[in-house]
Structure formats: structure tokens, C-alpha cells
Design goal:
- By secondary structure, this protein is α/β, with parallel strands linked by helices.
- The chain folds into 2 domains: 132 residues, Rossmann fold, CATH 3.40.50; 70 residues, ACT domain (Alpha-Beta Plaits).
- The protein contains 6 helices and 12 strands.
- The strands form 3 sheets. Strands 2-1-3-6-12 form a 5-stranded parallel sheet, sandwiched between helices.
- Helix 2 links the parallel strand 1 and strand 2.
- It is globular.
- The two termini are 14 Å apart.
- It binds ribulose-5-phosphate.
Length: 217
């Protein structure tokens, strides 16, 4: 990451918090190097006396929140006014690929629960069509052989990388992740729906129809 990437991420994270987070509310906080700056900014606002609580999208984010004095609550313990999170790819219609940090399941849960979902990113994440970034798909470990067989049958040209091949990468939910190259993803909603019909697929990193705003830095 270059210093200007980092400055862009900070600008996006801080701007999203300043624009969308109100004192006295519950918010969702995302995972990744851009969402980190939103967490940092919320920590500053709490240190200045504001009453903000957060739902974390990963164990890592929960740890960062605790380090910065951001109180954590459970999913829907309070209404989530806004969730702020990063993305790996952003299409022109704001369909996303997320989950590069492995937190896609909880990130989608928080986005679905939030009244508004705001994405923070640098312009490098804007793409004409999704698919250059491998799509993370979370899988129940027991079902892995079946899921691999069904995915290869349904998508003969797919290129599947098992994340953490030597030592399996384990998500916060105790599952595995497959990073999948499908080529250009023209119909992300359809792909997401069809992947979820495979028994053992927990979630894909495709987010469609959820984004309220994209804040670029
Ligand atoms: C984690 C995510 C991240 O939001 C996504 O990978 C973007 O991360 P970064 O801001 O570090 O580029 O989905 O699961």
C-alpha cells in the first residue's frame, strides 16, 4: 500500500463517519484497512464525549473497537442506523464483491440489518464489471468435496483457489473460504442466488441492492 492509498482510505473512513454517524446511535463497523479508519474516527468521537455503540463485522473489528474505546453490542440488540464497510470491487450499479478479509458472512448480516449501508473505498475499487477480484465463497468444511463438485459442474470454466491451502483459513464462523474466478460477473444477483442453492455454501461475497452510498477517498 502506498502512502497515498493510505491517505485515501483515511479520507474515506473519516468522511463517512462524519457524514453518517450521529451521536447516540448504534452503528455497524466493517472489516479491512479502509474500515479501520472509520473505527479510528468513531473512537475519536467517543473520546470527545459522544455516545455511540457498534456492532462489529468480525472478531478483528471487535478487538479494534475495544482498543479504541468503542462499546460493542450484539446484532440487532439495538437498531443499526448505519453500517460502514469497505469493498473489494464496486460496479457502476454499486453491486459489490466483498470478503477479501474473510468476514463476508458477518459483513452481509450487518449490512442487511442496517437502515443504511455505506461503502468506504479508494477509486481503485471502482470497476466496470465485477469479477477480476476472486469472489470469496464461505463453505461449511464438511461439505467441501460436495461443494467443489457442484461448483465445477455448474461452472466448468471456474478457477477455484482454496484460501490458506496448506493450513486452511478458518472464518470467524468456523468455516472455509473458496476464492473463485468466474470471469466477468454480468449478473451478480443471479450468481449469488445460484451459489446459495448448493448445500454447504454459507454465503458469497456478492452484495447487491444493499448500498446506500459510496464514499471515496
Ligand atoms: C473484508 C472485506 C473488506 O471490506 C474488503 O476486503 C476491503 O478491504 P480493504 O479496505 O482492506 O481493501 O470485505 O472481508
Amino acid at each position: 500500500m502506498t502512502p497515498s492509498d493510505d491517505a485515501g482510505k483515511r479520507a474515506a473512513g473519516y468522511a463517512a463517519v462524519d457524514r453518517y454517524v450521529r451521536d447516540g446511535t448504534c452503528i455497524g463497523l466493517g472489516t479491512g484497512t479502509t474500515a479501520f479508519y472509520a473505527i479510528e474516527r468513531v473512537g475519536q468521537r467517543i473520546a470527545a464525549g459522544e455516545q455511540i455503540v457498534a456492532v462489529a463485522t468480525s472478531i478483528g473489528t471487535e478487538r479494534l473497537c475495544k482498543e479504541r474505546g468503542v462499546p460493542i453490542v450484539g446484532l440487532l440488540e439495538r437498531e443499526i442506523e448505519v453500517a460502514i464497510d469497505g469493498a473489494d470491487e464496486i460496479a457502476p450499479d454499486w453491486a459489490l464483491i466483498k470478503g477479501g478479509g474473510g468476514a463476508l458472512f458477518r459483513e452481509k448480516a450487518v449490512a442487511l440489518c442496517a437502515r443504511q449501508f455505506v461503502v468506504v473505498a479508494t477509486p481503485a475499487k471502482l470497476v466496470p464489471v465485477l469479477g477480476a477480484f476472486p469472489l470469496p465463497v464461505e463453505i461449511v468444511p464438511y461439505a467441501m468435496p460436495y461443494v467443489l463438485r457442484e461448483m465445477r459442474r455448474a461452472y466448468p470454466d471456474i478457477d477455484i483457489i482454496r484460501r490458506g491451502t496448506d493450513t486452511p483459513y478458518i472464518t470467524d464462523n468456523g468455516n472455509y473460504i473458496l476464492d473463485c474466478h468466474f470471469g466477468a460477473i454480468d449478473q451478480p444477483a443471479l450468481l449469488d442466488t445460484s451459489l446459495k442453492t448448493i448445500h454447504g455454501v454459507v454465503a458469497s461475497g456478492i452484495f447487491v441492492g444493499l448500498v446506500h452510498d459510496v464514499v471515496l477517498g
